[in-house]
Amino acid sequence: MNKNWQELVTYQPRVMKLLANSIQKQRLAHAYLFEGKKGTGKKDAGILLAKSFFCENLQTYEPCDNCKNCRRIDSGNHPDVHIVEPDGLSIKKGQIQALQEEFSKSGVESNKKLYMIIHADKMTVNAANSLLKFLEEPNANTIAILITEQYHKILNTILSRCQLLSFHPLQPIAIQETLEKSGVAKHIAALVSQLTNDLNAALDLTKDDWFAQARLKVIKLYEVLITRKGQAPLYIHTEWMNHFHDKDKQDTGLDLLLYLYKDVLSIQIGNEENIIYHDIVQQIKQHALQMTQRSVTEKITSILEAKKRLHANVNPQLLMEQLVLTLQEG
């Protein structure tokens, strides 16, 4: 589902303000390069710009979302809006040439045309050179939108012909609020928003059974560490390693444990609004009274150290056994 203008303003206020001003003043650039990490709203912004460009009932700068043009752009079948994506691993010269042929014809419904190239950094050298010729002689009513997560891979000659708009990673609070609005429980939304700044990936995590189980196993380990200290190595052997059985999953498990100890520290220093594990906050408050700030800070440091060692290819089971022995102390 495509985002509306106000939603994107929440995530990318600077970019959307620049586009709004350009639309209102009728000073849209011939070519834009939208760059930023995955999940930051680049394609959504491109679709919105296309709708504003073609909208029959434009409201200052926002598309109406109701006219024939808006609806067809939303459904992906407007004859004068073309989206090019990699064919396999790259965007090939033939794809750019087909686009140029399409644009050499007059617009099907008006003299306007817009094209969007997704993963523009994946153009072959020949494709990029073909596009360059295209960008050097822009038609008055043609807009190009290039989208990339790796703008350092784009040819300088192409960069120099585009207006660069940088999309910043989404803030955790923006992701959390969006997830809560879509019905995700607060304690899950708060946790997921710390793990990724890609809204789509965050939504996927909230529906992932493995992740739901992982969270429960981390809480259980934390409880074992506090109430049944001697049993933590056994817990790692019998339950932890079966669930967190590869490096990426181990890394996620360590992150989830890290946020739990950060919650203890947040309570101790009076930052209760930063709590992530809302559903067990009473337990965390009790534990916060039983530990010194120094001890909690040392535990956080131990987990961060374990994350580093995990990426240095230390045996995961050995690493976890050593970590829980350290966390049991103090």
UniProtKB/TrEMBL annotation:
Per the UniProt record, which EC number(s) apply here?
Answer: 2.7.7.7
Which GO molecular function annotations are given, in alphabetical order?
Answer: DNA-directed DNA polymerase activity
Q: Does the keyword Protein biosynthesis apply?
A: no
What is one Pfam family matched by this protein? DNApol3-delta_C
Protein name, UniProt field:
DNA polymerase III subunit delta'
Name the keywords, alphabetized. DNA replication, DNA-directed DNA polymerase, Nucleotidyltransferase, Transferase
What InterPro entries does the annotation carry? DNA_pol_HolB (IPR004622), DNA_pol_III_delta_C (IPR015199), DNA_Rep/Repair_Clamp_Loader (IPR050238), P-loop_NTPase (IPR027417)
What does it catalyze?
DNA(n) + a 2'-deoxyribonucleoside 5'-triphosphate = DNA(n+1) + diphosphate
Any coiled-coil regions, as ranges? none
Q: Which residues form the DNA polymerase III delta subunit C-terminal domain?
A: 243-328
